[in-house]
Amino acid sequence: MKTIDLLKLFREPYYLFVANGIQLDDIRFIDMYDDYVKMHTDGEKVTYIVSLLAGKYTISERSVYKVLSRLEKDCMQIAAS
Hints:
The chain is an all-alpha fold. It contains five helices and no strands.
């Protein structure tokens, strides 16, 4: 399979990502977000959770806040053109 074949295969979902401002690199933070939701549901304080996640995923606390903010943003649900 060539790169162009893969691009054609995922063209529509990619257009939706772009239209909604989704950064494809954020895929690496899905597990981090799941950890955040679990700890938050268990009653942990946000600052404590962010501190733990920053250490676990070796990113700054500020980056954790930024990623969480991006991943919690509502999508527009528009069709690609």
